[in-house]
Amino acid sequence: MKDSSASTDPKTLRRVIWASSLGTLFEWYDFYLYGALAIFFSSKFFPPGNETAQLLASLATFGAGFGVRPLGALVFGHLGDLIGRKYTFLVTMATMGLATTLVGFLPTYEQWGLGATIILVLLRLLQGLALGGEYGGAAAYVAEHVPDDRRGYYTSYIQTTATLGFFLSMGVIGATRLIVGEEAFKSYGWRIPFLMSFILLGLSLYIRMKMQESPLFAKLKSKGHVAKNPLKESFSNPVNLRYVLLALFGATAGQGVIWYTGQFYALTFLQTTLKLHWLPAYAILTIALALGTPLFLLFGHLSDRIGRKKVMLAGCVLAVLTYVPIYMAMRHFTPLLAPGQTAILWADLPAYNLTMLVALVFLQVIYVTMVYGPIAAFLVELFPTNIRYTSRSLPYHLGTGWFGGFLPLIATAVAASKATEEAFGSGAIYAGLIYPIAVALVTLVVGGLFIRETKDHKIDTAIHVTDGKRETFDWNAVLLALGLGLGALLVAGQGFWIALVGAMGLFGLPTIFFRLECGRWAAIGLVLACLAVTAVIGTFVYPQLVALGGMFRFFAFTLLLGVYTVLLALAYFAFRPKTATA
Q1: Which domains does the chain have, with CATH numbers?
Q2: Among 411, 380, 64, 475, residue whose Cα is nearest residue 272
């Protein structure tokens, strides 16, 4: 095997990985400071009066940073493919560091009213834009230096930075709270972790200024093969657009929800649902992350041996099968609040219960490392060098930023709603898990059926579709299916927004992937047929389970979702054309 980066000596390789990983670690630290303080910030920057509304508003602001990450991926990905990896992520790092530092100077809602809220949201948007450009450039930079047969292992160092950044943010916040005291932290101490970002920014810029451009991009530039319009070449080319869609729904969407369930939602669940005090909640997650972080390297290395796809999809399977039992066990091992008590303190947690909570969160972190460890190498291998920064960054930040970043908000809102309480009874606190389970199921099916293994691909070439006669993908079938679904759900009495989300998930999304392989009408017909069979099964099974009450209501819904997913997979196998998939 000829390595695409055989000229990179070990010393240079270590410096490349160190500089890229350290800079990305600091960016994740900046970005996740807010996430670790989302519950605390709900009372600092949002109108008082309703604690649930404050929390949801704070989580929505956290999600806003994720919402603009795809835009940052497009803007900075375009620049990265035009002028190079190095200079682009110098700009993203400076933007992130300055935005984070300014949060440390920001007056609170009590001082500036809605003006403080608006500025906080704007700074979160700047952070999201910066992170949208940073990660794709750092991962591509490392991948374009390392040997082909160890790409999964070396790029997994970049993958550790997201968890380490979250870990570092919690550590700095926890240490600050303990050093200055709780009252001082509420008054001014919360600003210290944000102000520290300015020091980290200076250190990161110093290190990265000494880096050279990646050898593959430099070679491409010297030959005059740099993309003239990376955005156009990435998304107007039907073949490349196909890979962008497959990367999004067959890998990054599932990876995103598993990542954020295992870390942010676990922390939110511990604090808001189980009512743990912040100190034991932080300690549980911190220990789990410390134990799990080396596994990024293990699964990255394993993906070099058995393949990226097997490792990532195994993580999706385990998450789908075990999330509900894990969170039920977390409820079981957490003591109930005593009369008049507002939070579960250290003293209220027996050592055995604490150990079991750490083990349950650690189990979720294992899933995180399985789906996240190999994904940088997978995305690099899926796209050619001249449009790699742009093409890989968009599906990654859509999957992680939108599907994953909004997970705490969506899951918490679903679990807290009156409709959920009425529908699921005592199982309502677990209803938020429907979202990550559904997305992970989609990734499992799409990734399993449509994506080929990439580990043996040379990254200075492109993967090509072998069937040149396949009909060009278009959106007409998807829009038609979406319209049919929206109309059907509105007629069935659902509200507009619930009907729209349902139409997107049940009608539009499956049509996209059948349309990648089948003709327009065949795609719509297969989706409608699978829905019809699921509805027939539901008329017999659903009422029986609902009548049992409690958690059976929750399982009835998830069972039908699983049946529909299985039927879609069977339909694909039965009617797939005899041509190669991606």
Answers
A1: 10-450 (1.20.1250.20), 476-575 (no CATH)
A2: 411
